[in-house]
Amino acid sequence: MRNRWFGFGLAVLAAVASVLVFDRLPPEVTTHWNFRGQPDGWSSRTTAALFGPLAILGLTVIVWVLPIIDPKRENYPKFAAVFGLLVNVLIVFLLVVHLALLANGAGAPVDMMRVLGVSIGVMLVIAGNYLGRLRPNWFVGIRTPWTLSSEEVWRKTHRVGGWLFVAAGLITLLVVWIPGTRALYTGFIATMVAAAGSAGLSLIFWMQEKKGRRGT
Q1: Neighbours of 107 (CB within 10 A)
Q2: Rounded to 5 degrees, what are φ and ψ at 107?
């Protein structure tokens, strides 16, 4: 219950921040940057002010529903604490991005690429550290046909995949402090490699398990 109220609390905090700076925002607020750090997307100040609170609120409501509609709902009590932690990390990420967007729109010298790079890097490191504690489900974790068909394949994939995502997070955190690098681009590539590597490993583990069964 406290995890749910945490999300609602941060949604209120994001809304309060929007109200406080709304009059200082220009008619159009930069809300997207390319991998070079150049602005390439804008929204009205009303949209910019509302998006963060609504995104946090929406995510909070969604995570109430997931354990109810998941065919593997019986596993959720086994990793409830980790599920709550990962959701809260994502909610904090949304809040940080929202506050940075508001500050940037209000004229503060915010380096959005660095804010995003550090936030994503930290999120990947935390998520990677806890992936191994997840149990089979349809919504959270490394979900492939092979991890969802075998608890042992799920366990092995998340144990190794967790380290891959930690490595991707550390790479992102490292390059974001190096002048002239495209931190988000590098972080994106590292994350895709971690995701693809995890999916590939799940197939390998599944084939090994299948081979072992045939050999018995």
Answers
A1: 11
A2: 105, 0
